Each structure stands twice: as structure tokens, then as C-alpha cells.
Amino acid sequence: MPPVMPPPLRNALRPLAITFVPEIAGATAAEWSELERRVTQALVTRPSAMRRQLGLFVRVLEAASRIRYRTGLAALDPGRRIALLETFAGSPLLLFRRGVWGLRTLIMLGWYTQPSVVTALGYRASPAGWGARR
Amino acid sequence: MNVVRCDVAIIGSGAGGGTAALALAPLVAAGKRVLVLERGPRFRDGDFTGRELEMAGALYADEGGFLTRDGTMTLAFARGYGGSTLVYTGTSLVAPERVIRGWGVPGIEPEDLARRSRKYMEQNNVQLLEPSLQNDNNRLFAGGAARAGFHPEQFPLNLRGCLGSSLCNLGCPNNAKQGTNRVQLPAAERQGVQVVTRAEVTRIEERRLQVLVSARPPGGKGEEPEWAPGEYLVEAPQVVLAGGVMGTVPLLLSSGLPGLSRRTGEGFTCHPAHILVGEHPAPISNDVGHPKSWFVDRAGEEGFVLETCMYFPFITAKNLTGFGAPHSALMGAFPRLQMILVLACDHAVAGNRITVDKHGAPVVHYTFTPAVIESMVRATRASARIFFAAGALRVHAPSADPPLVEAKEADRLEDRIHARHFLSGRISISAAHLMGGCGMGTGPAHSVTDDRGLVHGHRWLRVADASLFPDSLEINPYLTIMALADRVAEGLLADFERGAP
């Protein structure tokens, strides 16, 4: 059985993550580990075809990086990585736009659902509602 | 296989199924057996924690991430005792006369739907939220909209003891929303209607249902099912389909009932929606208080509705266009964000429909028409005017490039926010008002059901959910679903009185 997180995505996860959400560069080891866990969990429930497509799309990104900048995604400086992803996000091809959207959504799911991250944003919703504020 | 016999089987327990269950409860006193089969679990009060990922996984199909076939829109629909009434905000609007007349279904009169809607408004304790319980996010919308020349209106809400958790869309942790899980289903059960949860109807044949009851997964939320896990054959002379658009339509299509209208699955509409945010200079109360107290209805004039809303961090992040530092900066301003939900009033068009894959799972085909895109762009401009009139420094507009529009650009909105920047697949679009697929009408050539929800050619089978809508409703749909389910149940009761089944 193939791994839940496609190997190309696993290899590129960190450089992609800090490009989409720059604060992830300062994540603690526990936060990073939790992000990986949440991304993996989200992929488990998705069809295997979708996971394969994501892996394939990361390969395309890698290839584009090597052709355009003569280096892989991980070694790209942040500005070029952003430029590369912006190119795909604004591509005339829907498949490429969806690929970037899917990757960013996965990483944001892994990050913006963590209690420490949510608290740091100042989000304070509580079941107690107004009672927790007044 | 276990065989169960009943007189009426209702599939689904949301706005349609819950309503039908209570309306048909008098049959129990007359010695009939009424059964509700709900695919999702019966949640316990303590299950609603308000934690985003945990609750999305428990309540929504595909954790709320169900995608249309081309991947350009996310559809949200819930499963559980109460269906999607578990996760709505309780906004209770009567269907506009203009829309119902536009449907052109003989037998469906606006006055009749309004009368039935008022009955359920009373049953569900619908009221206007008092000003002291409204938060800044809502007050800024109402004030900004009025200053920008719009006519803001307050949402009637079905609340009882709302504490203002703001967590409606993750299931109310305080049981304040008066959904079918709080009102109609418990009342029906007290009268003897049986509700079986974790019971998925996998196939429908003439007066028979194949049902799979599943055990509660280890560590899962909710109660164990009322029936022992396993396969069942339910024999029912009368069946009411109320599993919502994403339950009813795929079940009909995959079951291959003979003589089903070729229109089944067609006419899908959903009010495609954007989340827009405006950044204010100082913190506002946004993540406390009921999230949706006000709206601006421009459906008839410009094809859109604007509603207040407040979503959770991940949903917000997902819905902001782009990534990197600008995106992060906006997320970092969370306590200063005002939020508006933009809904486009789409219409049934050829091609926008539901089909099923080889496993019987729903596949939603949806293309954004130029009219829908223009509606969303107009709505985005209107929202920007409201944000700026309310004092926002900048506005995040998906149909702008770059998406952040500064206050100093407020006089250039026509140019900055434009259909040429509406790039599907790049911007996040979602929908929660899923409608159509079994549209009402006069015959199988142009419709699937009649005005009482009877499936053409099948006197034993009715539909009682939003899939009955022949076109979009242009407002939040649950009250109209209840009104139509009430009509369906009335027709069924009349049939029983005549001894029809």
C-alpha cells in the first residue's frame, strides 16, 4: 500500500509550508510534528487518486523549479519559491491553480487548527460565549 | 438479513426529515409504525466542543471539504440526528413571493408556504436578537451598510438561550439553536416515532430499503446506533426521501428505479459564496456573539445577498486568496477582522447537475456562469463599500488582484474588483445551500416530483428536502424546506385517511 503522504510531498513539505505560511519557519518541533500529523490525517480520508495527483503536482513543481532556476524547491530562496508558486496559482491551466490551492489548503489546515497557533492569533471563541468575556 | 416492517420510512432527519417525522407522528397513535433512518450519529450534548478540526470531522461530509467535480468549489453538508440543522446559524426567512412565483410550479403558492413557514417559526422560537447580544462584527455591518446606502435587515433567528458562543457552524455547544434535533425529532420520538441513527440507506427498491447500520467507531462522537450493527431490509409501503440534496439525489440515481425522470439530478443550484474580510484599526468583538444577525438582500435587483458571518481560523485562512506574508499579516489581524459572506443567486442551468460514480457516490458538476461571476463581483464591491463605510483600513477581495484593497482605493472599486480577476481554482468558493436535483413540476418530461413531493410514476415515494426546489431560493433555505416537508406530510396523511397505502 502506498504511503498516505506521497513521497514528493513529504520531501517538499517544509519548504512549501514556510512559503505558504511564513511563521511556520519558527514552529516548535512539537508544532511541526503536529502539522505533519494533521496533514497526514487529512490525506487519509481523501481518495487515493487525489493523493496521487498531489504527489504528481509536487513533482511538476520540482521540475519547473529545476528548469527555471536550476535548483530544486528545497534549495530555492524564498522569493523565487513564492514567484514559482504564484506562477502556478495564476496559471491558465485549472489543474495547476487547483494544485496550488490544494497544497496551501492542506498546510493551512495543519497549521491554523493547532491550539497554540489559534491562541497566538488572538482567536478566543468559547462555548461560554459572552460569559467568558464579561 | 434482518427484516423490519413499518408503515412509513423517512430517510434523513434534517429540516425536511425532522419536519416530516413530527407531522406524521399522529399516525403512530393510529397504530402505524413511522421510522426515521439517519445516516449520521445521535450526538451527545458534550460532543460539541467548538474545536474546528474535530467538529468538522464529526459533523460534515468529507470534513466539510467535499469538492465539485472540477475542484473549484467546496460544498458543506452535515450528517447526524438533525442533519444540516446541526450546523446552520438558524436564520429563518420566509421564501420571497417573487421567487416562488418564478418557480412556476402549479400548486405551490407563496401564501401557502408563508403560512406553513410561520407555523415553524413559532415552533422554533424565532426572534430578533436583542441589541445587547449583537457583537461589533454585526453592528459594523448594519451601520456600514446603512451609511453606504443599503437597507440592512435583521435576521430572524431560531434561538432559545443563546450564550453567544459564535460556534453555530460547529454545532451549538449550548443547545440554543432550535434545529430539528432540538424541536421536531424529540417531539416526534415522544409520540412514538422511531429514529435509528448510523443507518445508511444503500439502495431503494419498490417499497423496500436496504439499510446498513454501523457501530460507533472507536473514540468517535455520538451514541451507539439504536439497532445492532448489520444489514437490514426495511419494508415500507410509503417512503419519504429527506436526506438532503447530497443524500436523496445520489440514492435515487444509484438505485436505478424504473421510470425515474431523466431530469433526476438536474437543476442543481447552491448560492456560491465567498468570505470577505475588512481589517479595522482596533480590535472588535467578532468571535463572540451570534455570528449572523444582519443581512442585505439585493437578490432581486443585483443577484446577491450579503450576510454577516464569522468563521474559524482555518476556514478563514482557506478562504483568503493567496499565501505568504500578505496572507499571514491578515490572519495575524484576526481580532481586528470584520467578515461578510457574499452569496450569489445562481439559477438552474443545463450542465449544473448531480450524477453518481461507479460506487454510487455523488459527483457534482458545476460551472460558474458569467451571470454568477458578475453577481459575485457586484457583491464584492458592495461589501467593500460597507467595510469602508464601517471604518475598515483595507479589504480582502478575492476578485481583486492584488486582493488587498486599501481605503484610499475606495473610489476605484469598479476597476480594482473586476470579473477579469475571478479565477476559479485560485479563489476559494464554497456553498452550503444545496438545492435541486428532484425539482417539482407537472410531469416527468420536465420535473422529477409533483407539488406534493411525489416522485412521478411512484405513488409510494416522496421527496421532502431541498432537492425539490426547481430553482434557487435566493435566501437561506431551511424554513422553506420545512414548509415543503409539511406539505408532503399533509399529502401522505391524506393518502392514509383514504386508505391508500
Distance between the termini of chain B: 25 Å
Tell the overall outline of chain B: globular
Specify the biggest β-sheet of chain B: 7 strands, antiparallel
Rounded to an integer in angstroms, the radius of gyration calculated over CA atoms of chain A is: 17 Å
Distinct helical segment count of chain A? 6
**Strand segment tally of chain A:** 0
Structural class computed from helices and strand pairing of chain B: alpha/beta
Instruction: Report the average pLDDT across residues of chain B.
Output: 97
**Helix percentage range of chain A:** 55-70%
Order of helices and strands of chain A: HHHHHH
**Structural class given helices, strands, pairing of chain A?**
mainly alpha
Quick recap:
Chain A has helices at 7-20, 29-44, 48-69, 78-89, 94-112, 115-121.
Structure description:
The complex is a heterodimer of chains A (134) and B (501). Chain A has 134 residues and is mainly α. Chain A has one domain. Chain A is 67% helix and 0% strand. Chain A has six helices and no strands. Chain A has helices at 7-20, 29-44, 48-69, 78-89, 94-112, 115-121. The termini of chain A are far apart. The model of chain A has no long low-confidence stretch (mean pLDDT 94). Chain B has two domains: 2-125 and 169-268 and 435-497, 3-Layer(bba) Sandwich (FAD/NAD(P)-binding domain); 128-156 and 273-345 and 369-423, Cholesterol Oxidase, domain 2, CATH 3.30.410. Chain B is built from 14 helices and 23 strands. Chain B has helices spanning 15-23, 26-29, 52-59, 97-103, 110-123, 136-147, 184-190, 245-255, 299-302, 313-319, 325-332, 370-389, 413-416, 478-497, and strands at residues 2-5, 8-11, 34-37, 66-67, 74-75, 126-128, 153-154, 156-158, 194-196, 199-205, 208-213, 230-235, 238-241, 273-279, 294-298, 304-308, 337-344, 353-356, 362-365, 394-396, 404-406, 430-431, 461-463. The model of chain B has no long low-confidence stretch (mean pLDDT 97).
